[in-house]
Amino acid sequence: MKQLIKLNLKFTMSIIDERLKKEIISEDALNAYKSNQKTIEKIKPTLSLIKAEHIKNMEVCLSYDKKLSEASNQLNFIEKRNKDLQNEITFLTKVFNALRKLTVNLEMQSEYFEVFHSENFSSLEIISKIESALSYLSEFNSVYNIRVIEERKEEISKTLKIFYKKFTTFFNEKLSKIESTSRGELKIHTFIYEEVKIYENIFQFASVNFTESFIQLISIYKDHNTKIYKKEFENHLKVIYKVFQEKKGQRVKEIFDIFYESFFLIIKAEVHFCKKHVLFSKVNLHEFVSDMFYDVIDYLIYSLNNLFEKLPVELIDSLEMNYSFDFVGEEREIWKSLVSRMEEQRKLYEKRFISEERDNFLSRSREKNLEFTLYNLTKRIKEPLRNELIEIEIDDILREDDDIEDKIKILRMLYLFSDKVKHNKIEFYINEKLKELEKEIIAYVFADEEKSKRRIERLFKQSANEKRVNEFIKFICEDNCDDEFKSVIDEIYEKFK
């Protein structure tokens, strides 16, 4: 309780001290004011003037700020307006220049427009004017939707369609009159190339602007070229046929190799010309040139049938094409297609030859068949055809094997065959027949002693003076008889020696 009373007393004393301090300060201030009152009264007017001047200056500053803000806004507006006007001037200048160019073009096109009504496409002067007109028209690609332009475009399109229709007719008639200067040789068509190059720009303009007319023009070029190639190939093949008919077999392969090389050079020239002067990358070059020669190759294959009837082996050998040419570009793919077709035809001829030979073997004697086979094998025949021909000849030799006389005949023919042709299968059957005949000769000759001499004579006769067969018969017989009969065998042997 005493503690609480002490605290309250302390707090009360603190409040009293604060009030006393404030009263002392207020009293000091009042005393100071009173002592300076006269001085304050003297400077009051000056302070009022200063205050008034300050207020006046503030009003002027605010007025200037407002005017500066308005001026800034006006400057921004003027700057934006100037920029808009500059853009408008630039745009109108471009429009003016475009319209001026368009007007000039319209005037120039009017100047050249009449040339499209010309009928004289053979005149180089007219063609030059047409090229100039097409050059100007190629720039007439305005995008402005202006009535005069649209009307002009429509007029130009209509006129050009009529022009290309007339030109297509003219071009067709012109190429129809061109004939090959070939007299049996294959030729690069420079005589056509020179004519077509005159109209190169007309082709190129059509390739961009008139697709239908462009397709018609290149089709005319292709069809007439194909027609001339077929005629040239026909004449050239007649020369080759003549060589075949004269049976100059040693030159057949050489002539065909020259023919293939000439054919390749023609394809190469056609590819390069069409790529640069005819198609302008608008049509597949490979397909276009391949199609041009497709009928030519068909005719070539068809015409080869006559050669096959006369000299099948020589033809089959000649159809093996030379792959050593310089293969580059599109001509490589076209040539590969040709090689593929000719290779297919060669294989067909091989099958046909073997099939016909099998049929012929049945209608001829074995001796005649062997003669024909040996003749064919002296020619250039490669595998597997050579092996197949040997196989059917062996089968033909072995086809009659009924008695010992047939077997003697077979052995004789096998020896003759092996003299000309070295083949393991021939040697195999010779050895087989020797084994078979060893027992059969003994059984046949010595089965009846009274007939032994006559039978030996028959065997020697069947060998047809084939020394190896006679010696074999003599050896087998003498090896299985007494000395007395050996002398008889020697006499018979000398008789047929």
TrEMBL record:
Lineage, highest ranks first: Eukaryota, Fungi, Fungi incertae sedis, Microsporidia, Tubulinosematoidea
Keyword field contains Kinase: no
Coiled coil: 68-95
Gene Ontology terms: biological process: exocytosis; Golgi to plasma membrane transport
One GO location term (cellular component): exocyst
The organism of origin for this protein: Anncaliia algerae PRA339
Record's keyword terms, sorted: Coiled coil
GO molecular function annotations of the record: phosphatidylinositol-4,5-bisphosphate binding
Name used for this protein in its record: Uncharacterized protein
